[in-house]
Write a structure and sequence with these properties.
about 200 residues, alpha/beta, Nucleotidyltransferase, domain 5, six-stranded mixed β-sheet, 6 strands
């Protein structure tokens, strides 16, 4: 099925800024102890579609890099934040990331997966990159904020994107931001599905 032409146009920053601001307002579970991991992964694994994202401490000097601090996974009714500053990239988590039966969707997921694999090797399966999909459909917009504006008619804040994700305790703003990115990724995938693309 062809994507309707109205979704192929480019959005200006001004146009996006006129749209209503939305953020995720459902339940969020911050997983920051090893004991919490099995139950969380058990719940997440019941879903066949997850919004996916990671957050990494920003780098301001050349030649410096940091491992991912957070994995965000959005189910239908909850967003789970796996806080890698406190927990390991365990076998249970890697099994989920390796499952071909569970779709994990987001923007620039190849890079996120590559960074996670540098922490601990795993076979990545079931990932769908929304940016790649948008490019294949000849959409002029392929970033998360632009896709949300184009397909969902709202804007999301990128205000704390470059904040310190390496800190031990995340701020409420960071938690909402991180949850929103994963939730929006899932919503965009569902919109593509509704349009008959997926």
């Amino acid at each position: 099925m062809q994507l309707p032409e109205k979704y192929k146009r480019k959005f200006t920053k001004a146009e996006i800024n006129e749209l209503p601001l939305r953020q995720y307002d459902g339940p969020i579970k911050l997983i920051d102890t090893e004991e919490d991991v099995p139950a969380a992964i058990g719940e997440i694994s019941k879903c066949n579609l997850l919004g996916f994202d990671t957050e990494t401490r920003p780098v301001f000097r050349k030649g410096v890099s940091y491992p991912p601090s957070l994995i965000q996974l959005a189910t239908e009714d909850c967003v789970y934040l796996l806080h890698l500053n406190h927990i390991s990239l365990s076998e249970r988590i890697k099994e989920l990331l390796s499952s071909a039966d569970i779709i994990k969707t987001g923007v620039a997921v190849i890079n996120d997966v590559k960074e996670l694999r540098q922490v601990s090797q795993f076979e990545d399966n079931g990932f769908v990159d929304l940016g790649d999909l948008a490019r294949s459909l000849e959409m002029q917009t392929n970033g998360l904020r632009n896709l949300a504006a184009n397909l969902l008619d709202f804007r999301i804040s990128k205000g704390v994107q470059c904040s310190n994700w390496g800190r031990k305790e995340l701020t409420p703003q960071q938690i909402i931001y991180a949850a929103t990115d994963a939730w929006v990724s899932r919503e965009i995938y569902l919109k593509f599905h509704e349009l008959g693309i997926l």
